[in-house]
Structure formats: C-alpha cells, structure tokens
Design a protein that fits this description.
Elements (H helix, E strand, L loop, with lengths): L4 H4 L13 E8 L3 H12 L4 E4 L15 E2 L7 H7 L2 H25 L6 E9 L5 H13 L4 E4 L10 E10 L2 H11 L5 E4 L6 E4 L3 E4 L4 E9 L14 E15 L6 E4 L7 E7 L2 E12 L8 H13 L1 E16 L5 E4 L5 E5 L5 H16 L17 H18 L20 E7 L2 E7 L5 E5 L10 E3 L4 E3 L6 E3 L4 E3 L11 H6 L1
Parallel strand pairs: 1-2, 1-10, 2-7, 4-12, 10-17
Antiparallel strand pairs: 3-6, 4-6, 5-6, 8-9, 9-10, 11-14, 11-15, 12-13, 13-14, 16-17, 18-19, 19-20, 21-22, 22-23, 23-24
Helix pairs in contact: 2-6, 2-8, 3-4, 4-8
The structure holds FE2/S2 (inorganic) cluster (FES).
C-alpha cells in the first residue's frame, strides 16, 4: 500500500466519533485544509459549527498533497488571462497570495509546528521548445506585480533552458498544519468528529446528515469534500485526475529550498525538498492521468523514481503516494452556495488545492456571515460560462459517455476468479452482471458489484493503490468496497462469492 510522507511526519489527532444526535448552525463535511480552516474561521466569528470527517483529520487529499503554497496556478496565469481577461488573472494571483498570507499568520499565531517557510517558486523549460511558455508566464507575473525574475540556472541539479523565479511563495507540511489548527479551533463553538462518515443528506425543515451511529441537524451544510458528495449538475464541469508522488532519501548533494515545476508536457513533474530528522529528501511529483482509465498504475511510481535518480544521488525511495484533483471546465474553482439551497461547495481546485482550500475558507466565512467578499463573484459556484467551458466540457463528457460502454456484456476483464492473482482485483462477469472481485494475499476473494454507487459507471482496478476507481466522476472504493473519496456516498454493493461457485 502507498503511504504519504506528510501524514507520517504529522502528529495524530484523537477526536471522538459522533455517537449522539446533535444540531448546529453549520455542518461541515470533510476535515482537510478546506474544512478545518473554514471551521476555524466560522467558530472564531461566533457561529456554532459541527465538523464531520469520515476518517482522520487531514487523512485524505490534504495529507496526500505537495505541501506547496503559491500565488501562481497549475493552468498558468497567462492561460487564465487569455481564457478570461487580465483582471481575472490578476485577481486570481492576488486572492491566492492572500490565502498564503493567512496560513503564515495562523502558523505564527498558534506556533503550529509544520515547517512553514517562504521559498521561491520556479517554472522551467528543459529545452528551448518550451521557452515561449516561460516567457509568457514571466510577462504575466510581472504584469500582476509578482516578484518575478528570469533565470537560466536552478539551485537543483537540473539543466534548464529558461526559468521563471517568483520569490515569497511557501512550503509546509500540510497534514501537520491542518492537525495543528484543528487542535486550536474554539471548541465552545465547534465540535469535531472523526470516523464519522456521512452517508446521506436529507432535506427536511433543516438539513439532516446521517452517519452510521447518529445524525446532525444543521441550517447550512458545507461540502468540504474536494468534490461535492451526491449528484450535482456541476459534476459535468469537474474532471477527476490523479497524480503520483515519491519521497527519495538523498545520500549527498545540495539541498536547496524551493518549488520546482517542469513544463515538459508528457510527465509534468514538480520537485521540492524536505528534511525529516537527520534525513534529507527530495519529493518528486507528477504522472497525471484521468481517474480509473489506466492499465498500469504502478508505472507512474517507477517513472518518478527514474526522474529522481536522473538528477539526484538517491539512497532509497521511502514513501510513495498519490492524490486526486478535479479540473474545472473553465479553469477556475467553484466556491459558494451550490444549486441546492443552503448547501455550499468548494471544488475544482486542479492541483492548486492547498491555497484554494484556504481561500475557500475565507470566502465561505464571509458569505455565511453575510459579509461582502471581494473574491466571491470570481469563484461563484453557480456561474454559467458556456464559451469558456465548451472545449473541456465536450471533450471530458464524451470521455465519460465512453466509460458507460464498459457495462456492456463481454466487456469484463476476466471470466473466472482463477484469472485473478493474489493481492489483485479484476472486473468479472457473473450472470450478466459486472462484479469487482479482489483476491487477498491469502487467496480469499472479496466480491462486490462493479457498478459505482454514484451514477452507475463500472469501476476499474488500481493496482498501485489496491482500490476500485470510477472513471466517470472519480469515486474511489477500497478493495473491499468501502468509499475512499469522490461523490459516491455508499459502498459498492456486496456480492456472495458462493453464488458464483454454485454456477
Ligand atoms: Fe460518478 Fe462513479 S463517480 S458514476
């Protein structure tokens, strides 16, 4: 199984499980950076809040992220400028810069031990082919008054053609920050529960959130779940991707600070360094692909390792993990009230989620306190942008439509359980149904329906993470069917392997 460097280097939390029916003004689902920062700000403003986390605080995408905070964006500021306009690109950079400042303020205020530091951010081209991208980004960043510089050498041992350097960005351990902040939340106004997975939201006079053991009744609900839970039209404008990360322990060599992004289109790596005790690590991230649509998921770790060894004196690869992100159709996140009254969302962060998560908290805090927020309109969740969204919308939704073909007869990966190796899974056809069958290391089979409980796509086995991943909207399930993440509320339906053996 994969494991995240950040989670292993962060203190554990010990919040209780929800065991009694309670009520609150605002219920937040999700204990990542978005949920916890929002809970902190709302509780501080005097709102009565309940936060429900399905697993442990920062145990999801936040703890699997890069630990980088920056005003720039994965999509590039000059692309935002050409798709939208100069004012939009400028406001994106400004708003993201303010979110990074808030993290720094909280770290200092509460002395959160999360290795926060200001570092430069670089985007580089290895060949002249990509210099034009760098030139455009330098121009855009300078125009928006970011502290930018053109450079032709990096402090890391990677030969570059051209690079942009932006001073004053930041790095931290995101799991340590979020867990540290969770401990500082005003407990008189905010109750936090772990291991309290919400499997249903009912609209009565108020909103009622059900977990296995109890219910929360709230006037308003914030889905800080990375993508909204349940079925929303917005899911046609959110496209799920995964990316991989390794932490390589170094034998020797320079160990400079900084965020390093490579423009090479085929793999798009990003690098950074981090010290843990006496050990120096370089973290290499990349290998972006659509969720649930690969044949070989493990190859991404191998490619990252090759990349690390190409540039650094690597002693060992100590951690491997991956994370999901959701690309928005028109290039900007969706933050604010959803199409459902009193349900708020924060999603579509692409790979820039730590900064956008904090920015979401700032916006949602103002909205729920009926205060003006200068960024609300920019990221409005209910915006309609057909022209800016059209290209991605058509491409991605045709891709989703294609995934439903996998439910046709004869499209299974195996005809019998014998074709499945130990510790692996395959989709098997059983009496015209698709089953997701996992064979554990002892040879015992675990069978569940392969039909995703969100909107009926057929899930795909992820050999690197031992999970069932849905290619349509990114729901992911454990090998034994329980929900890991994504819009699905319910686990894959269990199936009885004895029924198959009787055939
Ligand atoms: Fe939507 Fe699976 S996530 S159908």
């Amino acid at each position: 199984m994969t494991r995240s460097f950040w989670k292993s280097a962060a203190p554990n939390t010990n919040f209780p499980k929800l065991n009694e029916n309670i009520s609150a003004e605002i219920a937040i689902i999700g204990g990542g950076i978005t949920g916890i920062t929002t809970a902190y700000l709302l509780a501080k403003s005097g709102k009565k809040v309940v936060l429900l986390e399905a697993g442990t605080i920062s145990g999801g995408t936040t703890g699997d992220s890069t630990g980088n905070l920056y005003a720039m964006v994965d999509k590039r500021l000059h692309h935002i400028q050409s798709k939208w306009n100069e004012d939009t690109a400028s406001r994106v950079a400004q708003s993201r810069g303010q979110a990074v400042n808030l993290v720094e303020e909280l770290v200092n205020k509460y002395q959160i031990n999360c290795s926060f530091k200001r570092v430069p951010w670089y985007l580089f081209s290895e060949t002249e082919k990509k210099d034009e991208t760098i030139e455009k980004e330098i121009k855009a960043a300078a125009h928006y008054r970011l502290p930018v510089e053109e450079v032709h050498d990096l402090p890391i041992p990677v030969k570059v053609s051209m690079a942009i350097k932006v001073e004053g960005q930041a790095q931290f351990n995101p799991a340590a920050f979020v867990r540290g902040l969770a401990e500082k939340i005003d407990s008189a106004n905010c109750r936090i529960f772990e291991n309290s997975e919400v499997h249903h939201i009912e609209k009565e006079e108020d909103l009622v959130l059900s977990t296995d053991s109890a219910k929360v009744t709230a006037k308003k609900v914030i889905l800080a779940t990375h993508t909204p839970k349940g079925i929303y039209g917005l899911q046609t404008a959110l496209y799920p991707y995964r990316e991989y990360a390794i932490a390589a322990k170094l034998n020797s060599g320079d160990f400079p600070d900084g965020i390093y992004w490579d423009t090479e289109a085929d793999f798009h790596t990003s690098m950074r360094t981090y010290s843990k005790g006496e050990d120096n690590y370089v973290l290499v991230l990349g290998g972006h692909h659509k969720v649930g649509q690969e044949d070989d998921y493990s190859c991404f770790f191998k490619k990252l390792e090759q990349n690390a060894r190409k540039h650094f004196d690597v002693a060992s690869i100590d951690y491997e993990w991956s994370a999901q992100h959701y690309k928005p159709a028109d290039g900007l996140p969706y933050i604010g009230e959803s199409s459902d009254d009193n349900i708020y969302i924060a999603t579509g962060f692409s790979t820039d989620g730590l900064t956008y998560g904090v920015l979401s908290a700032m916006i949602l805090n103002d909205q729920l306190n009926n205060r003006e927020n200068e960024w609300s309109d920019l990221y409005k969740a209910s915006r309609f942008t057909p022209v800016k969204s059209a290209k991605n919308f058509i491409k991605e939704n045709l891709n989703v439509a294609k995934q439903y073909i996998k439910d046709l007869p004869g499209k299974a990966e195996a005809g019998s359980f014998d074709e499945i190796a130990a510790d692996q899974g395959k989709v098997v056809e059983v009496e015209n149904e698709k089953w997701a069958v996992f064979k554990d290391e002892k040879g015992q089979v675990h069978c569940q329906s392969a039909v995703c409980t969100h909107m009926d796509c057929i899930v795909d086995w992820n050999d690197a993470e031992k999970s069932w991943d849905c290619p349509c909207h990114g729901s992911r399930f454990k090998a034994t069917g329980e929900v890991i993440e994504g819009p699905a509320f319910l686990p894959l339906a269990p199936k009885d392997p004895a029924a198959r053996e009787k055939e």
